[in-house]
Amino acid sequence: MIALEKIREAADEISDVIHRTPVLTSSRLSEQTGNEVYLKGEHLQKTGSFKIRGASNKVLKAVREGASHVVAASSGNHGQAVAYIAGQAGVQATIVVPVDASPAKVAAIEAYGGQVVRCGLTSAERIPEALRIAEETGGVFVPPYDDPDIIAGQGTAGMEILEQVADCEAVIVPVGGGGLTAGILCAIKQMRPEILVIGAEPETADDTKQSLEAGERIAIGPTQTIADGLRTSIPGELTFPILRSHLDRLVTVSEGEIKEACKLLFQYTKQVVEPSGAVSAAALLSGRTGIRGKRVVAVLSGGNVSADAFAEMLRT
Ligand SMILES: *Cc1c(COP(=O)(O)O)cnc(C)c1O
């Protein structure tokens, strides 16, 4: 576990640069799932996802300690978050992306002032390149989830949930590498251990489910899911032991259930949530969380989806 003190320090460190995101409600979602449903709106966070929490905790600390350059390997929300916070802190960011990264994602990183380097197709190729660039430039590598400062930063979302939803009984969190879930577990299980924390993962990228069943980290092959933020192939070294010891349950959802959740969130709440961010709501809607008659928070972890991709989801 990451100490509560570290999460409180992270909250202080990042409070000026992030939003305290709103908690939304939907009576239709509540009725449909038989619970009192609250939605933690991290799709309305700065840069469009919770990733800015961990990234700013790590980057602002590094800058205070003298860093003038940060490096990350991600074409997605983590890359955007690192580019944004580096710009705010006045330091340079280099973001290593796959050669097939979408032009929209590259443009978002560049719009925040990040320098884009293209390398390979897999994270196994990108991470060594990012580490090499960090080494060569004296920069600091910012991992997406497997780092105590990143986990502490993501944990601030858990603290906010406890402050915003009095008497909350269960929290559902999308799981990729496990940084968000580990952070929320560290906050909630040290402050209110009776609250259930449930992970949600795509069926087609169920590395965490397989790992929890095996009791050790299991690597799965390349994954394909519409929830592109959850395409990790192995849980983190630091995050997995936290999930294994404290996560109450893990639910997997199908591709169809993820799309349907995006659609219902749009219809019921008028919110644009990206597929990864809607996996928590999909789990709740599936009826497989085992949660009924409870005050439950689904974390909507991000909202970065292109208009075309979103329109396509609404049509199908
Ligand atoms: C990164 C990401 C996740 C998964 O977070 P992890 O810390 O890797 O488990 C979930 N949702 C969105 C929108 C993300 O960008």
TrEMBL record:
What keywords are assigned to this protein? Magnesium, Pyridoxal phosphate
Task: Say yes or no: keyword Magnesium present.
Answer: yes
Pfam families hit by this protein: PALP
The protein's matches in CDD domains, at most eight in alphabetical order, are given as: Thr-dehyd
* Cofactors demanded by this protein: Ca(2+); Mn(2+); pyridoxal 5'-phosphate; Mg(2+)
PANTHER family in alphabetical order: SERINE / THREONINE RACEMASE FAMILY MEMBER (PTHR43050), SERINE RACEMASE (PTHR43050:SF1)
Q: What is this protein called?
A: Threonine/serine dehydratase
> Can you name the source organism?
Bhargavaea changchunensis
